[in-house]
Specification:
With 313 residues, the protein is of the alpha/beta class. The chain has eleven helices and 13 strands.
Length: 313
């Protein structure tokens, strides 16, 4: 069956090159650079690890590199939108959480400028603020492609995604909060307290797409067990069947251990594995492990902050 619409995602979905080619998804890359270095320092684009391996990227951070990220320019978004319009098919665009980046706002601004230029208010381009990123965004975009290939329309998938982003549940473990603090994603006081505890922080996404700390763990082995326990307690297969999205920042052995723990819980679970890409990796640092899955609506649960424009029962 021919595709009924195009799918575009920014590179924070952590798709590999093989993923995006297999699912026919266009990826718009973020870029990164280490400012203040005479030779330009640590720099590149989030090109799905074509120019350097995950190990090379994270080794640079371990050796002192402190890269900063940049979202795709409005020109890049405009060019992608023009190419999409030339296909004659509608398009859905998945963007990193607006609680972490200005990428979504940049895409919307680019689309508004294109509408004004063309004199049309109804261009068939649907832009989504995922309110998540990385491994859960991988799961969201992958399911959108499955629905497209099953014959659903762009309107159907767009409406589904607006709701499904709140059913994507996430827990991830980082070695420390230093990198997240430097990038402005975690307050300094929180990073200091976590550092004094000498613990591995466990985080998730709040309803507004920002990061929230949900606990700490002593040691990576215990942390991996907590990730698996979180899946056991909160996953809901529903129409998706058993599926979990797991990612790692240059710690594939931990990902193997996590997958084994998850299969003890549900032997037939479909596991989506990914390397945490440079955009997210710049902020979480080496050693991150994530576990993401479909669950109950987070807007109706406890422990999540309210977000403007989202009804919470």
């Amino acid at each position: 069956m021919a595709a009924l619409f195009n799918i575009i995602s920014d590179s924070t979905c952590d798709f590999s090159l093989e993923d995006s080619q297999r699912l026919n998804i266009k990826i718009l890359p973020f870029s990164y650079t280490e400012a203040g270095k005479p030779d330009g320092g640590f720099h590149g684009i989030d090109d799905q690890y074509r120019s350097r391996s995950p190990h090379e990227f994270y080794e640079a951070i371990k050796n002192g590199a402190t890269p900063m990220t940049s979202q795709p320019s409005q020109l890049i978004f405009e060019e992608a939108f023009r190419e999409a319009l030339d296909t004659g098919l509608p398009t859905i665009v998945f963007c990193i959480s607006s609680g972490l980046s200005g990428g979504y706002n940049g895409a919307v601004t680019a689309l508004d400028r294109l509408k004004e230029e063309l004199g049309k208010d109804d261009l068939p381009i649907y832009v989504i603020d995922c309110l998540i990123t990385s491994s859960p965004m991988y799961m969201l975009v992958e399911e959108a492609a499955r629905r497209r290939d099953a014959g659903q329309t762009v309107e159907e998938v767009y409406e589904w995604a607006l709701d499904a982003r709140f059913h994507a549940r996430t827990i991830f473990m980082v070695d420390n909060l230093d990198t997240l603090h430097r990038g402005g994603r975690i307050p300094k006081t929180v990073a200091i307290v976590a550092g004094k505890l000498d613990a591995k922080p466990l985080l998730n996404f709040n309803l507004d797409g920002s990061l929230g700390i949900i606990g700490v763990t002593r040691g990576r082995a215990k942390g991996l067990k907590k990730l698996a326990k979180h899946y056991a307690e909160y996953h809901r297969n529903g129409s998706y069947g058993p599926v979990v999205s797991i990612g790692n920042a240059d710690c594939p052995e931990d990902l193997d251990r996590l997958e084994a723990l998850l299969r003890e819980i549900e032997p037939d679970v479909r596991v989506l594995r990914s390397n945490i890409g440079p955009t997210i990796g710049c902020h979480v640092g080496p050693g991150m492990v994530s576990c993401c899955f479909w669950g109950d609506d987070r807007r109706k649960g406890k422990g999540y902050g309210k977000v403007k424009g989202v009804k919470q029962d």
